[in-house]
Amino acid sequence: MTVFRENKLFAFYTGLVVLIVLLAIFAPYLAPQDPMAGNMKLVLQTPSAEHFLGTDKLGRDIFSRILCGTQISLFMALCLVALIAMVGTLVGVLAGFFGGWLETILMRFADMMLAFPGIVLAIAIAGILGGSVINTILALLVVSWAKYARLVRSLVLRLRNQDFIQAAKIQGAKTSSILWRHILPNVMPMVVITGAMDIGTMMMEIAGLSFLGFGAQPPTPEWGLMLNEGRQYIQTAPWLMIYPGLAIFIVVAIFNLWGDSLRDVLDPRQE
Amino acid sequence: MFEMKMFNTKKLWKAVSLGLCGAVLTVMLAGCGADNSSSADKGVLKVGVTNFADTLEPTQNFFGWVVMRYGLGECLTKFDDKMNVQPWLAESWSISDDHMTWTFKIREGVKFSNGNPLTAEAVKASIERAFAKNNRAATFFKYKEIKAEGQVLTIVTEKPMPNMPGFLADPLFIIVDTSAEGSRDFAKEGPICTGPYMVESFVKEKAVMKKNPNYWDGEVPFETVEIPSIDDPNTRAMALQSGEVDMAVNIAAGDMDTFRGNDKFFVDEISSLRTVLARLNHKGILKDDKVRAALICGCDRETYNNVLLKGTFLPGKAPVPPSMDYGFDQLTDPNAYNPERAAKLLDEAGWKDTNGDGIRDKDGQPLKLDFVVYNSRAELPLYAEAVQSDLKKLGFDINIKTVDYNLVDQMGIKGEYDLLISNITTANTGDPEIFLSWYWKTNNNGDNPQNGSGYSNPALDAKFNELAAEFDKSKRRQLIIDIQQILLNDGAALFLGYPQTNIISNKVLSGVKMYPSDYYWITSLIKPAK
Amino acid sequence: MSDKEILLSTDKICKEFTKSDGMKFTACKDVSLNLYRGETLGLVGESGCGKSTFVRTIMGLHPADSGKIFFKGEDITRLSGEKRRAMAKHIQMIFQDPSTAFNPKMRIRDIICEPLRNFAKVSDKEAEARAVALLEQVELAPEIALRYPHELSGGQRQRVGIARALILEPEVIICDEATSALDVSVQDSIAKLLAKLQREKGVSYIFICHDLGLVSLISHRVAVMQNGQIVEELAGDKIAQAQHPYTKKLLSSVFSVKKRA
Question: Looking at the whole model, is its pTM more than 0.80?
Answer without folding.
Answer: no
